[in-house]
Amino acid sequence: MSFSVYLSGEIHTDWRDEIARGAKEAGLDVEFTAPVTDHPASDAAGDHLGANDSGFWRDHQSAKVNAIRTRHLIGKADLVVVRFGDKYKQWNAAFDAGYAAALGKPYITLHDEDIVHPLKEVDAEAQAWCTTTDQVVETLRYVLEA
Question: Is the model's pLDDT at 31 over the cut of 90?
Fold first, then answer.
């Protein structure tokens, strides 16, 4: 079985590469997609639409342009993995989890135990909560090969 997996969330560590590497080593037929992970490029996604005097409107414009990609890729995905890191609050990741849930897409959360409480609603809707990328790969292996 082949699977399309959207990797949402935190962009400051190599967790996406770890999952892709693990899936490849396990011989899994998985296509991974993701948002733009170049932070400055993502922040500037709407700059070509015109200058703004306010940071709010610049962010608003760029968020809408980024949403074109995000909505399309989540819509095509068989599964969404949502990573919450410890360095920044990933409100966009929480939104992606909610969007996946609204579409009826299964999703897995990936985060440390120390943020279980603030993510209780997000985790309650998830099909699995993982604390390591190895657990994500093992979940994919089970779903694809069991």
Answer: yes
Q: Is 144 left (phi over 0), alpha (psi -120 to 50) or beta?
A: alpha
Q: How far apart are CA 69 and CA 31, in angstroms?
A: 16
In sequence order, what are the residues at sequence separation of 6 or more whose Cβ sits closer than 8 angstroms to the Cβ of residue 139? Answer: 108, 128, 130
The DSSP secondary-structure symbol of 124 reads: H
Query: Confidence band (pLDDT; 50, 70, 90) for 89?
Result: confident
Q: Is residue 48's pLDDT more than 90?
A: yes
Question: Domain spanning 3-145 has what CATH number?
Answer: 3.40.50.450
**Nearest CA among 114, 113, 76, 83 for reference residue 16:** 83
Q: Does residue 87 carry a pLDDT above 80?
A: no
pLDDT of amino acid 44: 96
Residue with tokens 């200058």: 51
> Which tokens in the block code for residue 9?
């969330």
Task: Spell out the domain ranges in the chain.
Answer: 3-145
Instruction: Assess contact for 35 and 74: CB atoms under 8 A.
Output: no
With beta carbons less than 8 A apart as the criterion, state whether 121 and 145 touch. no
